[in-house]
Amino acid sequence: MTPPVTAAKQGLISCHCCALVSPNPGGKGHPPAACPRCGATLHTRKTNSLARTWSLLIAAFIFYIPANILPIMTSTTLIHTQSDTILSGVIYLIDTGNWPIAAVIFFASVMIPVIKLIVLTGLLVSVHRRSAWKPRERTRLYRITEAIGRWSMIDVYVVTILVALVHLGAIAQVKAGLGAVFFAAVVVISMLAARTFDPRLIWDQQELPNE
Fold first, then answer.
1. Phi, psi dihedral angles at 51 (to 5 degrees)
2. Are residues 88 and 192 in the same domain?
3. pTM as predicted
4. Which residues fall within 8 angstroms of residue 110, CB to CB, at 6 or more apart?
5. Is 150 in the same domain as 179?
6. 11 and 56, same domain (yes or no)
7. Structural domain range at position 13
8. For 49, phi and psi rounded to 5 degrees?
9. What pLDDT score does 209 carry?
10. 3-state secondary structure string, the chain?
11. What's residue 158's pLDDT?
12. Segments in the chain below pLDDT 50
């Protein structure tokens, strides 16, 4: 099977900012200094993609622990004060019969962050191992992971709305807990990790000669 013709083989390079494809007169490893259209610095691959993605992923894994242990919200009424983590809030919704809402929060705030971190870790490991296993499927998995990551912020949006609306002094009050800060950090950091990962590294293995 004849390998497909790539831009790198044709001496071309794509701008990360405006997507302009321009000639790479220096050849592979020596890109032109700047994009002729927008002036951005050109690189054949995202600079230090693996190192930056690993750093962000490790930070996200660390922050994920307090995000689930610490209370994400504290509600105070005349009767009592209650602090809820993400999972305790899901359990409370299930006990009160709000299964659809509980399912949405559990999937968006628990499952998606975990799946995203695991998928990105798997992609990084596959690149480090120079795996040639199903690059098309891995690329598609990366696109899905990058697209759904932002929906993990649903819990943060709910807490933000409640804090803004429920503010009745001594009668009722809702305050955001420290867990919300860590959870927001996990979501943002994992989104940055997905952005710093260069999926073209998955396909670079196809260009390497068999060893």
1. -65, -45
2. yes
3. 0.76
4. 68, 86, 87, 90
5. yes
6. no
7. 1-44
8. -60, -50
9. 47
10. CCCCCCCCCCCEEECCCCCCEEECCCCCCCCCCCCCCCCCCCCCCCCCHHHHHHHHHHHHHHHHHHHHHCCCEEEEECCCEEEECHHHHHHHHHHCCCHHHHHHHHHHHHHHHHHHHHHHHHHHHHHHCCCCCCHHHHHHHHHHHHHHHHHHHHHHHHHHHHHHHCECCCCEEEEECHHHHHHHHHHHHHHHHHHHCCCHHHHHHHHCCCC
11. 66
12. 1, 209-211
Nearest to 10 by CA among 211, 207, 209, 153: 207
Phi and psi of 196, rounded to 5°?
-80, -20
Which residue has tokens 């959870």?
183
Beta bridge pairs of residue 73: 84, 176
Would you state the pLDDT for residue 1?
47
Q: Report the sign of the C-alpha dihedral through residues 5, 9, 10, 13, in that order.
A: positive
Question: Could you give the number of structural domains in the chain?
Answer: 2
